[in-house]
Amino acid sequence: xxxxxARMEDLEAICALYESxxxxxxxxxxxxxxxxxxxxxxxVREDLEAGRLYVARQxxxxxxAVAIDQEQEEQYARVDWLFGTRPGSFHRFAVAGELRGQGxxxxxxxxxxxxxxxxxxxxxxxxxxxxxxxxxxxxESQGMRRAGTVHYPPNLSQDYPCLEMPLTADxxxxxxxxxxxxxxxxxxxxxxxKLREVYGKKIPNDTTGESLEVSxxxxxxxxxxxxxxxxxxxxxxxxxxxGAYAGETFPLLLKLLDARESLSVQVHPNDAYAHEHEHGKxxxxxxxxxxxxxxxxxxxxxxxPGTELEQLRSACLAGAAVFLAVGGPLMGxxxxxxxxxxxxxxxxRCLCVGLPVAALQMSALSYLSATGKAVSALIVSLxxxxxxxxxxxxxxxxxxxxxxxxxxxxxxDVLSTVPALILCARDRKLYARKAAQA
Length: 438
Description:
By secondary structure, this protein is of the alpha+beta class. It has 13 helices and ten strands. It has a seven-stranded mixed β-sheet with strand order 1-2-3-4-5-7-6.
């Protein structure tokens, strides 16, 4: 091994190496180091006394110096590191100018890694100036990834990219804070500004409905702090990141929703249906957590208990399914009284029960009116509005209260449709008889 622990008698030679390196950096327009400020004689002495300074020699003279330890810079606490729970670092890595470009830095970096592994470190962390292209190239060529950026006084405007790499096969991955993708504009006309106002999200417009926090949806992928998208992270780290789902379609989607207005009706298929009809996608099993809600808001899911498939199909064809699903939000457009909204929702859902029959009745009425049967049409209308409706209001309200009052409408529609159909059938028979005699 080239590296060895430096000795106190090396102090002057190491200081000369650092001073020469600083001068060469500044001559090249690189303002990373300034001898006397950083590094300095006092810093070199502290490194020697702590036993963390290592040198490589040529004819007994130091030609390379580097401090290696497990201490982390204070600024590192603000970086979103990905690897390890026992990190090691190196600092103040300098190679004699006449030996640069000959592969010495690469060899020494390999030995730094071996020393840190010997210390029990499972990961390596370091930083260098954004202007130091040679150092960045060296570190990244050895498999280091950029993890973020720090700044050091006195020049806080100068960026220092942080880099890291795992040192052991069992080095754990740390939690990855994700940068979300957004869905808004015409795709979510019901969206708003709450994602920015409440949660500080950098939304693209004022009708942003979704912040996709964890997503592999093509075109809407979330990313790590360095901009690497989740599918690429999964491809890189596989089982360490997603366990048994490595090599399979990532099944999770986590997003924040801002519903300024009522959402569209959401229908989520199972995996088999989605795979067959939605280009191989997965189905959706959802869990919702309400973080914030305006007065009068409600979560509407499912349909009225007891609703049969044929009822739902008929309601959809009649345009009534919206009342089954979102009666409350519709009432909320006209009042903020929670009790009134609840009653209105119940009323709308009761009305839905008779809508398919009412549509049939209206068709019968239109037929009678169009064929000149005004008396027959009047009889049906009177049955619906007076003869049947008024008794039903009284009887059902007496026995069932408000629910009975709401049910009076669908019951009346069903009962008054009977004479309407009888009158239409009789008229059709008369028409058929006259056609046969002609």
